[in-house]
Structures are given as structure tokens and as C-alpha cells.
């Protein structure tokens, strides 16, 4: 079963059917629902704080709408949607700085449980990859979970265990964004009791996590473009809106352009994931491209937005930091930007001169069909 | 989501993937046979009328021109795929570039039936070669300030003025010239401009080379000294020249040539890094990622053009990011390079050519400064 | 050579090198004794009146204040050296920063004899703590638009208005306030502004915290509700406020705090890279080089200040490049960092603090956009 | 004998003598002479060409003025000046795009001959470091030299040989700037007959070459600032000089600021070299800082200048490329930018947290005097 099979049909706007494969945008009705939902959240939430805690009311509302387990199979109580829809949800939630563990609970934790054939009671899940000693660092939302899904590499085997939070040691910490990002210590017996899963699950976990982070970061960037534009048009300096200054126009144009690039890279990877249910051999390249572009664009967007907003944008009460801090926090998760660039370098050098373009178009360094010689 | 500047990405279906491989296989054969040597910025610098005609024979020119005008009647996305394959392999495509990208679509949109019949079949066969005459010595980014004037005469117009930066004019058959057909009204600077189809062999046309900083001849100054243009070689509506030239910017600016001019250098650098002739560095990966993402963006714009959506702002984004990136690749490879210790002629020839061509990337077809203004306007800032 | 923006570099003589080592040894002892924990951006965020007084006892405050006013009567280049050593080690210097950098020099230049005697000895001992009140809610980069008004009353003035971004006002004794002492003349916006020395404990002063995005309290909003300022607390000439505040920009902008706010992070990253806790990457060397060159430039500007040369443009160059670089260091280290696999608390605390402080670097004391304009004007472009 | 001892005294503009060490700027009379000389050259030279050949007339004039052997000892027929003066000469010559081998002939070739105790007849010298097989690549001005000074590493010994150009194999090539940059093949016997010199000469050669290139590049950048300003003030677009556009102002401000940074880094290294006759233990760091800053600034300056100048600046007849091409050609000589950044990274990581600042202020990773403990 591929994600593709679950997606509703969209009108193909091309005159030449067959040129384009599966659509890459989520169902407009779903997008409208989500947009309204998170606009409500943005309008009703309290003033920003330096520490960010789980919004249980919002989580409850998402649960009622079937959005907390959007990609879970219907058999296991999920909504059976695919990555295209999940990316839209993650992006819009991140644009509203909604403090809810959608990626952890559904795309990672729920997926691992399903992959391992473990039951899912719908209780809030955090997720992590503990080290050989059973310790996992920076486990987002761990303290709020009912249980923690651990992916653990044990003597060449990968195991998945669903461990109730009461059975783990938990040191409360927070990340740059002020979100719970705890240190979790497992009892090794709980991990050893986990279900053995295919080796591919281990690599896919890292890719899924990285791409989920991209979808969140791009969603936050898109909201930043809106905030920046509004401010530039409203703020008057030297007798006119700062949007009239060429320097400000250029800062905003660069923010918007980088956001568009990050969006393109992310959507391309999401489309590939959805079309192949992550089985496409080009997933590593596609996710690496997204993580690299999103990460480098984040530097431009975060810096430029703060520059346009000025000092007001650095205050706790302003919305801007509720977006920029999570962007930078997520950028360092599931591999540093430097690591992903190294991955791409390795892929490109192994493709070499003659296969670099094939790598770019298919994600694979070797062509499926060799040209006739 | 209101401020999404670029259409959603699209995924190539199997038909496009097949087309890619077909073109790629042909080009690999041509390289193997020594028909051309892969190079950078070939859509400006590598001129080969035989190769262009061969592409025409294979149906890879005039792809979006309807069959009744000798074209292939295919889609913009198919043309996009063929174009990318030609660019990444560094093929000599300059002879047909302007006609294929701008002249064909303009003729289809604004030309008379007679003009279409006169030019489109030859363009599709790669036999009629066109240039573009917009810029003038005193009008760089400020196109409305063109001074070439068109004076009404019996049966047509006489054009007098000087066009610059006309690539390939010394090899081309004709060009489109933007000229002032009514006096300048300072309050409406964009009025009174018209486009004319000028035979470059006509009396009164003088073509002088503009030599580039590397010593090459790609550009020309075209002097028009009372050149007669019959009425049937006015393009579109008289006085509508401004809206005609600007309406095609989506086509001119979003193409893969705004991203891939230095792809051969990037590929050579990947090879050299793999062979330890350059130091291993994550910067390569960063550039590979950006080019891959720009390929997605540029393709997305081509699907919008296919759907007849306005893509001017999206095209400005692609050109802004793409031309910066293709130039940054040249600078990046240069920072890895040490002279004096090893000769790597292929890489250094590509690098030097890329460095010499680079300044033009972010100038031609709208400077980065102009494009940021276009994006800002698209965002509602001006 | 006509367009050299920055004075020639200078080389430290043995006396300065000795002073450096003396300060450095003291600071190393303080760190070893746990008196302070090295941090980033400490000239804004680390407030320690005891430490400040200790510096005063050692003769490292009021260095350019003449001895007759309780200062050290030493040179700008000596002060520069002491300042650099304090910054690079990440010492808690916020309590005396504004007084030492701006208030002292301004009082020396514009203050009455009585004002000098009243404030300079306390500043030099590190006992009198000053803030600055220039910005207002509606005047960011556009300082001439300040609305705080000074009304003439018997024996002095009454100030009414709101100042923002006053760092440390909640801990400080007094601040300089820029206010409009004559109605705005739109044709001469810079006229009619005056500077007042305001006791922050005076009736009518209300100080409210502005909490930063990291949750810290460094900045304040200072409301002045008819605060009485006696005539002897007007600074300099009435109506000359604009020229007074702008004439000190060379002092405010060229200092090493415009380069070194994140030095502790750079040093921690060098250590982590050496220990293989961060990947080895040539970007570190690039940043080291830039900081080293900026140290040279900043020192060169201090020699010009010492020689009473105008250094406004040079100072703008140092601040433009320096604040960009100190912020880029934060971003650079962040790109090397992966969360979730190793805890490195020292490095990550410095990194997170640097990320949270970074947006202010290129805003405070003149935005990069304003500074580029200053440089362009210095080059004769405006 | 240090360079310092040869330099004329300058007035110290500080009130506090002893705070500053040796002056760092060349004698104003010399600077005036050079400025006038190269202004004449710029005014009288022909239109730029794609290939650049030695200007023998200019070389003759420089020779008459004692400038071709500015830093040679007076005993050997030189002018006995130091690196501060030499850097001024190199910079002003580069700003005039003067096609003369000042660095090769004097600062490298002449110095090597003197270090080896070999005679110098004043004939034009090129210089190179042939590989073990006796081949040297990219030897600038080789074809124009009367003889070529080779620094050759032979079984752990360094030798200097002065080989008449008639005795070498020479393949004519040109660099990016169109300058002669030939491949030279020596007869191994000629190299083996060279004089053995101290090992330190080998490392110093690389540093001297790198710093000479920095001085040239910065001189060219300073001329670019002038050209760019003139153009911005003269060129009218949209009804006003482009200098009035904020975007152009910012481009020019960035060019000028980066040039100033490159100048500061270069002058600091030159001052250290002059003060210590290259014996200062911090020379490697100082030169690396200069090469790194100059190299990265070159990217900003070259790109920005071409962007301000527009298409006209890309034509062969325009002065701009006579500056930008040599800048990029020199940037790759005596080590790539990447290598120098790696050198700095190695110095910084070996200094570590506690000694990084000492490295920056003294060029040495260990302090001369440890603080009392």
C-alpha cells in the first residue's frame, strides 16, 4: 500500500496528461480546515512566553478531528492520509507555533509502532533513538507523553519498544525554543524486550524525522514572510513605510525567495516519499537536498526577518521569535546541516561527472537505463 | 500561503522521464563522437548551426510551436526537459536559443498569420536564426529610455538608432528591435514603443563586435541607419511594445539556463573531488542541493506557463536565485583551487570560462537589483 | 588611496602588550576563582557591580578621564586593550559599559565643570551607573523623530515622554535623555533637540522591563511624566542635542564590543573542533581570520580617536563588518551542531545565548542599513 | 639586520609614545612618487587586451628609479627598502594593472638569490618551486626572464639555483588574467647544482609569495573602489545617477568595507614581517589571516563591482577586468583559499579555547609569558 493510493484525486491542470505524476499538494478542503484551525489558535493563544509547554486543549481538538494520527492506517485508528497531507499539517501548525507533538506522535512514533506491529492506544507518544546504554538526549515532549517509542540498535538488530513514561528516568530540559527536550534513560530490559524490525527502518527513521523537520521549518518561514511584509508596510520611519526603502524591499525579497526555495526542496521530497511510500531509491538524496536547502535558507530568513522587524522583533511579546527559535532548534535535529551537506558531497562525488545530473533528477547516482552504446 | 511566490512543485511522469533519457542518450553519443566538447554557458557562447539543425531534425526545436507552423505541438514541460538535458551536458545551443525561447512564443502571441508562416517553420527546423535588440548604450536596466526611433515612411518605417548586447547578431538572420514610434511623453514613458522585425542583412544595418573581457566575440552593437521596415514587419500592435516585451518575462527568466550555465563545472568539480584532485568539502553538497531545488522550482514554473498562469514573479525568483547560484558555483570552485601544483586542464578551462562569464549571469535579462524589485512588487511592497 | 575608509593599521608597542598580559592574568584568576563564568555578549547581559568596582580599583575604568576628575588620564589605545581583554574572556562588564564608552567622553566634551566633578569620579570608580535614553517607540533608526518634550519651567525643564531599549535602566542611577526642547520644524528636523541628565530615581520616572525573546530582562521602557530637570543638568548647548549625540558615534561604533560579543563561542568551538566534538571545517579558520582582521581595524580606529581624527566613517565600517561577523559566528557554529547525540553543555549554552542575542547585534547602535548609508556618504555617494 | 632598521622615521601621531611599535605606512614621498608613476602608466597605456605581455618600457623606467630591486640589499645593488615599501609598490602597481614582475623579480627571486649567497646581475628573474622531476607549473613571466630562480626540495634539503632561461624547457601558457604563466622544465643537473639553503627558506618562500599576492590584490581592490564610485556617480538610469539608489549604495559600501578589511589584514602582516624581518613566530598566522581575508573579500569585491558596472564592465575595452581577473588569478597562487582556511583552523584548534585570543593578538598559540598561578 503506497501513500499515493490513499490520496484524493486532483484535477490535473496540464493539457498533456501523463507528463506529470502524482499531484504534490494537499486536498484544498483539508488545507482550508487546517488554515482556519491554526488561525483560531493564533488569534486566541496567550502572549508568548520563554518556555513553551504542550497545549493540551489544542491537542484535544486535533485529536477530535483525527489530525493527531493523520497518517496512521485506518485499521489502527489513524486517518489513513499520506505525507503530502501530513506535511501540510506540520507546516501550518509550525506557522502558528502550535506546541503540539504532531511529528513525534504520528509520523515517527505511530509509524514505528505500526512497522513493529505494536498496538497504539492513541496516547501521546514521544520518540527517540537511545544509545547503547539506553540514554536518549533531546527527546522533545518526552515529559508530556504517556509512553515513549524507542528505536534501539542492539548488536546489529533494530528493535522498537513502546515504554510507558513511568518506567523511564527523565531529566527535564528545554531546547533553544523553550520546548521540552528531555533526557530519557531507559531500563535496558525494556529495550531488549522490543520487537525486532527491518534494518531499513533505522535509516528511514532518520530520513522521516529530517523531512518532518523541514516541513515544520518551511511552514514557520512562510508565516515569517507574512509578518515581515505586514511590518514593512506598517512601520513608518523617515516619514514613510519602510517597505518603500529599497534595502528593505531587497531583504524581504530575499526572505521570500529563500522560503520559496526551501518549500520547493521540501515538497519535492515529500512528493517522492508519498508516491513511493518511502521506497524510492532516491529518498536519501531528496531528503538531503531538502534538509540542506531548508537549513541554509533558515540562516537568511531568520536573520533578514529580525533585521526588518528591528528591536521590536526581539521582545518576548512579539510573535517573531516563536517562529525563529523553533526554526533554529529544528535545524539541528536529525543531523546537523554540516552532516547533510557532507552526505550530499559523498553522493555527488560518487556519482561523478557523468552521473551527477542523473542524481539530481532521480536521486540515484546510477541510471536505471543505460543509454545505448 | 498567501505569499507563495512559486507554483507548487510537480513530479515528472514516465513520459517526461523517457524523453529525458532519449535526449540524454543522443547527447552522450554526440560527446563520445566528438561533435562537441561540453562547456559552460553554452547558450551564449557555443554556436553550431549544424548541431542546431540536427536538433530540429529530431523534433527538439519549435516544440511549443503548433504543427501547422512547422513546430512539434508539444508542451512547455516537454520543452523544459529537453532544454535541461541540452544545458547540463554543455551542448552548443546558442544558435537557436533566442528564437526558441523568446521569438517563437512572441510570434505565436503577437505575430500576423503571414509572419508566423514566414518565420516559425524555419525556426523549428533550426534554420532561421534570430537575435534580440532591446538594450541601448544609455538604457541598461531602464528599458523605457530607449532612443532608437521609428519614423513613418511610405509603406513602412525607418529605424535609426543603436542596439547593444545583441548576442550572435553577426551570425543571425534577423532580430526584434524595440523602438520609439511616437515621441517620448515623460508622464507615460512606457507609451509609444513598438517592436519591429528587422532583417539583419538589410541596407543600413551595421554590426560591430563587442569583445568580452575574455577576448571572445558573442555580443554586438547593431547600428540602424534609417533601415526600412515594411508595415508587415511590425510585430503586434503599434505602441504596445512595452507590454509586449514585458509580458514575455516569465518565459525569458524562469528557464533552466538561469540555473545551469555552470553545471559542467559543478559536475567536473564533483569528479575532481571524488578523485582527490580537489579537497573534499561540504560546500559541494550545499551547491548540489541548491541546484537540485532550483531544478524543481524551474520545472514548477514551466508547469504554470503550460497552464497559462502568470509566472512573472515566480520567474523573477528563479532567475534571482538561479543566476546567483550558477555564479556562486564558479566562485566556490575557485576557492578550492590552487594554481602551480597540478594541471587539470579540463577543470581549469571550465573554471576560467565560468569566471569570465559569471558577471553577466546576474545582469543579463534583468539585474538582480531589478528582480528583487519585481519580487517585492509581487509581494505587494511597491 | 583617496578612498581609504579606515586609518592605517598600527602595531602595539611593548607597553600595551604588557598591559594586555596584566589584565589577562587578572581575568584568568577571576575565572579560576569562580568570580564569573565566561559568557557571550556580556557588555549587555552580564551585570556585576562588585566586579565593576574591582576594575575601578585596579585603574581599568575611567582610563581616558583626566586625573583631576578622578580618572586615569591614560590613552584611548590603552583603554582599547583593556576593553578587548575584558570582552574576549566574557567578563561581566554591563554595569559600567555605557558610562565608560559614551557618558564619560560626552561629559568631558560637553559637560560643565560642575557636572564633570559631580559624575566623572564616580564613573571612574565604577560606582555611578549610567544608561542612555535615545530611542522611542516610534523612532527606531529615525532619531530626529523623538517625541519626548522638554518644557521650560522655573529653574529648569520638565520632561515628558517614553524612552525604550534603555539597557540596565532598572539598575542604573541616571541616564542621558534626548528630548525636543523646541517645536519640530519639518524643514530642520534636527534642530530643537537637547540632552538632559536625568536622575532615574527622580519623581515622575517609571521604569518597566522589556523582556527579551530569551526571557531575560536587560532592556527597559522609561516613562518620564513631567520629570523636573534643573538647569544645571542640561548637557551642553540647548538645541545642540542632535550634533552632540551624533558626534560621539566614532566612540560608540568602533569599539571591540562590535566584533567580540561572541568570542567565547568562537573559542569554545575551536576547542570542540580540536577535541572532535565538532567536525573539522575550514569555516572556523575563515572566522578566525575575520575576527583577527577586525581586531586590527578596530585598533586602528582607536589610534585615530587618540589622535582626535574624525573616525565616523571608519567606525561605521568596523561596526558593519564586526556585528555581521560576530553574528555569523553564531550561525556558523549552529550549522555544525547536531542535537540529540551528545550533550556539550558549555558549548550549547554559549551557542543558544549567542543565537538569542544575535538579532540585536546588527540593530543596536545603528542598523546595518543605516551604516551602509553612512559609509556611502563617507565615499561621497549621497 | 631587520627591515625595521632600514625604514625612515615617521612622526608618531600618538600622544603616548611607546604604545605603538614601528610605523606601518610607507614614506609619503615614496608613495607620492609611485602614485604619480602609475597614474602616468594608466593614462598612457593602450586599450586593454585579452592577453597581457610584459611592459618592458615600464620595467625600464622602474629599473632606473631603483624600484625593481626595492628590497634588495644595497650591497647587492638593491635599494635596501623593506616590506612596507615593497607592499606599497606592489599595491599601486596592481592598481594600475601594470604588467611587471615586481614580486617575482625582487621579493621572491632577488631574496632567494641573496639568501643563497648567489650573485644577482639585475636581469629579470622569474621564480618557482619545481617538483621532484624538475617541472614547475604556472611560472608567471617565465618566458620574459633572463633566468629563473628555482627553489627545489631534494631529499630533505632545499636548494636554490639560478638557471638561465635558455637552459630550461618552456611551454607557453597563460593564466586567467592572460598573463604569461608558463610550464618550465629544468634539467635536474641544474637544480642539483643549486646552493643548499636553510629549511626555513622553504616555508618563508610560501609565506612571502602569499603576502606579496595579498598586497597586489588589495591594491587592485582599492582601484576598483574608485572605478565603482566614479561609475555610480556618473551613470544615469531611471532619471538619476545610480549612486542615488540604496541598492547601489549598499553594494559600493560593501565593496569598500571588504577592501578596507583586506587592507587591514594585509598591512598587519606586512608590518609584522617588516618589524621582524620575517623572524616573528607569528608570521604564519599573520599571512594566513591576510590570505584568507583577502581571498574572501575578493569574492565580494569582484562580484559587487561587476554588478555595479553592469554589462559595460564586462567588455574588453573596460578597465575593470584588468583588475578583477588578476585578483582571481592571484587568489589561487601560493595556496588555495581553502588551504589557508584549513591552516587557520589547525592553528585555532591547536590553540584551543584558552589560547585562541593569544593566537589572534600575537600570532602564536602559546603565550610568551604565562600568567602567574
UniProtKB/TrEMBL annotation, chains A, D:
Its cofactor is FAD. It comes from the Bacteria. InterPro entries: AcylCo_DH-like_C, AcylCo_DH/oxidase_C, AcylCoA_DH/ox_N_sf, AcylCoA_DH/oxidase_NM_dom_sf. The keyword Oxidoreductase applies. The keyword Metal-binding does not apply. Residues 1-18 have a biased composition (Basic and acidic residues). It holds the Pfam family Acyl-CoA_dh_1. Gene3D superfamilies: Acyl-CoA dehydrogenase/oxidase, N-terminal domain, Butyryl-CoA Dehydrogenase, subunit A, domain 3. Keywords: FAD, Flavoprotein, Oxidoreductase. Signal peptide: none annotated. Residues 1-26 are annotated as: Disordered. Residues 210-333 form the Acyl-CoA dehydrogenase/oxidase C-terminal domain. Belongs to the acyl-CoA dehydrogenase family. This is Acyl-CoA dehydrogenase family protein. It comes from Terrabacter aeriphilus.
From TrEMBL, chains B, C:
Residues 18-127 form the Acyl-CoA dehydrogenase/oxidase N-terminal domain. It holds the Pfam family Acyl-CoA_dh_N. Keywords: Oxidoreductase. It comes from the Bacteria. Residues 132-226 form the Acyl-CoA oxidase/dehydrogenase middle domain. This is Acyl-CoA dehydrogenase family protein. Signal peptide: none annotated. The lineage of its organism: Bacteria, Bacillati, Actinomycetota, Actinomycetes, Micrococcales. PANTHER family: ACYL-COA DEHYDROGENASE, ACYL-COA DEHYDROGENASE FADE34. InterPro entries: Acyl-CoA_DH_CS, Acyl-CoA_Oxase/DH_mid-dom, Acyl-CoA_Oxase/DH_mid-dom_sf, AcylCoA_DH/ox_N, AcylCoA_DH/ox_N_sf, AcylCoA_DH/oxidase_NM_dom_sf, Mycobact_Acyl-CoA_DH.
Amino acid at each position: 500500500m503506497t501513500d499515493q493510493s490513499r490520496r484524493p484525486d486532483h484535477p490535473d491542470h496540464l493539457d498533456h496528461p501523463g507528463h506529470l505524476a502524482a499531484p504534490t499538494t494537499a486536498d484544498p478542503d483539508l488545507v482550508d480546515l487546517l488554515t482556519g484551525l491554526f488561525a483560531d489558535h493564533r488569534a486566541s493563544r496567550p502572549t508568548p512566553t520563554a518556555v513553551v509547554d504542550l497545549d493540551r486543549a489544542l491537542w484535544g481538538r486535533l485529536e477530535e478531528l483525527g489530525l493527531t494520527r493523520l497518517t496512521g492506517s485506518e485499521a489502527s485508528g489513524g486517518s489513513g492520509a499520506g505525507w503530502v497531507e501530513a506535511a501540510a499539517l506540520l507546516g501550518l501548525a509550525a506557522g502558528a507555533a502550535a506546541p503540539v507533538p504532531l511529528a513525534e506522535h504520528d509520523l515517527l512514533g505511530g509509524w514505528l509502532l505500526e512497522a513493529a506491529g505494536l498496538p497504539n492506544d492513541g496516547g501521546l507518544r514521544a520518540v527517540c533513538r537511545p544509545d547503547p546504554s539506553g540514554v536518549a538526549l533531546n527527546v522533545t515532549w518526552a515529559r508530556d507523553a504517556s509512553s515513549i517509542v524507542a528505536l534501539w540498535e542492539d548488536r546489529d538488530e533494530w528493535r522498537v519498544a513502546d515504554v510507558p513514561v513511568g518506567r523511564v528516568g527523565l531529566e527535564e530540559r528545554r531546547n533553544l525554543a523553550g520546548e521540552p527536550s528531555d533526557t530519557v534513560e531507559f531500563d535496558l530490559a525494556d529495550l531488549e524486550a522490543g520487537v525486532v524490525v527491518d534494518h531499513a527502518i533505522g535509516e528511514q527513521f532518520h530520513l522521516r524525522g529530517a523531512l518532518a523537520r523541514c516541513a515544520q521549518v518551511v511552514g514557520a518561514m512562510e508565516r515569517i514572510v507574512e509578518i515581515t511584509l505586514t511590518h514593512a508596510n506598517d512601520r513608518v520611519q523617515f516619514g514613510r513605510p519602510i517597505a518603500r526603502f529599497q534595502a528593505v524591499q531587497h531583504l524581504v525579497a530575499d526572505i521570500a525567495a529563500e522560503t520559496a526555495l526551501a518549500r520547493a526542496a521540501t515538497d519535492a521530497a515529500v512528493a517522492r516519499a508519498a508516491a513511493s511510500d518511502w521506497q524510492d531509491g532516491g529518498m536519501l538524496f531528496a531528503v538531503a537536498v531538502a534538509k540542506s536547502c531548508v537549513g541554509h535558507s533558515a540562516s537568511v530568513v531568520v536573520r533578514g526577518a529580525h533585521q526588518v522587524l528591528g528591536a521590536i522583533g526581539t521582545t518576548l511579546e512579539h510573535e517573531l521569535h516563536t517562529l525563529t527559535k523553533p526554526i533554529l532548534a529544528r535545524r539541528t535535529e536529525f543531523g546537523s546541516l554540516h552532516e547533510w551537506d557532507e552526505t550530499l558531497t559523498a553522493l555527488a562525488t560518487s556519482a561523478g561527472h557523468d552521473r551527477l545530473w542523473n542524481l539530481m533528477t532521480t536521486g540515484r547516482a546510477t541510471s536505471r537505463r543505460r543509454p545505448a552504446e | 500561503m498567501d505569499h507563495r511566490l512559486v507554483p507548487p512543485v510537480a513530479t515528472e511522469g514516465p513520459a517526461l522521464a523517457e524523453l529525458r533519457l532519449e535526449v540524454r542518450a543522443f547527447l552522450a553519443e554526440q560527446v563520445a563522437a566528438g561533435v562537441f566538447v561540453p562547456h559552460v554557458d553554452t547558450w551564449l557562447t557555443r554556436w553550431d548551426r549544424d548541431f542546431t539543425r540536427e536538433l530540429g531534425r529530431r523534433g527538439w526545436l519549435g516544440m511549443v510551436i503548433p504543427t501547422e507552423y512547422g513546430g512539434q505541438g508539444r508542451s512547455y514541460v516537454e520543452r523544459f526537459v529537453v532544454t535541461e538535458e541540452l544545458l547540463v551536458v554543455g551542448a552548443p545551443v546558442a544558435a537557436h536559443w533566442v528564437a526558441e525561447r523568446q521569438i517563437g512564443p512572441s510570434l505565436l502571441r503577437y505575430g500576423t498569420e503571414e509572419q508566423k508562416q514566414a518565420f516559425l517553420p524555419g525556426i523549428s527546423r533550426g534554420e532561421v536564426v534570430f537575435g534580440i535588440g532591446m538594450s541601448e548604450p544609455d538604457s541598461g536596466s531602464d528599458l523605457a529610455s530607449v532612443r532608437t526611433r521609428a519614423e513613418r515612411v511610405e509603406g513602412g518605417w525607418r529605424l535609426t538608432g543603436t542596439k547593444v548586447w545583441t548576442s550572435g547578431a553577426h551570425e543571425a538572420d534577423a532580430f526584434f528591435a524595440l523602438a520609439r514610434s511616437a515621441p517620448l511623453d515623460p508622464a507615460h514613458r512606457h507609451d509609444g514603443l513598438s517592436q519591429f522585425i528587422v532583417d539583419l542583412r538589410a541596407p543600413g544595418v551595421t554590426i560591430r563586435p563587442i569583445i568580452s573581457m575574455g577576448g571572445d566575440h558573442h555580443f554586438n552593437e547593431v547600428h540602424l541607419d534609417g533601415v526600412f521596415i515594411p508595415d508587415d514587419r511590425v510585430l503586434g500592435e503599434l505602441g504596445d511594445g512595452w507590454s509586449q516585451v514585458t509580458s514575455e518575462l516569465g518565459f525569458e527568466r524562469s528557464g533552466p539556463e538561469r540555473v545551469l550555465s555552470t553545471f559542467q563545472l559543478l559536475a567536473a568539480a564533483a569528479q575532481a573531488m571524488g578523485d582527490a584532485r580537489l579537497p573534499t568539502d561540504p560546500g559541494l553538497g550545499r551547491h548540489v542541493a541548491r541546484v537540485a531545488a532550483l531544478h524543481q522550482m524551474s520545472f514548477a514554473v514551466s508547469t504554470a506557463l503550460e497552464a497559462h498562469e502568470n509566472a512573472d514573479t515566480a520567474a523573477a525568483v528563479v532567475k534571482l536565485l538561479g543566476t546567483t547560484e550558477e555564479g556562486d558555483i564558479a566562485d566556490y570552485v575557485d576557492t578550492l583551487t590552487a594554481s602551480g601544483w597540478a594541471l587539470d586542464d579540463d577543470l581549469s578551462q571550465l573554471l576560467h570560462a565560468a569566471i569570465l562569464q559569471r558577471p553577466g549571469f546576474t545582469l543579463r535579462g534583468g539585474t538582480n537589483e531589478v528582480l528583487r524589485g519585481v519580487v517585492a512588487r509581487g509581494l505587494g511592497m511597491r
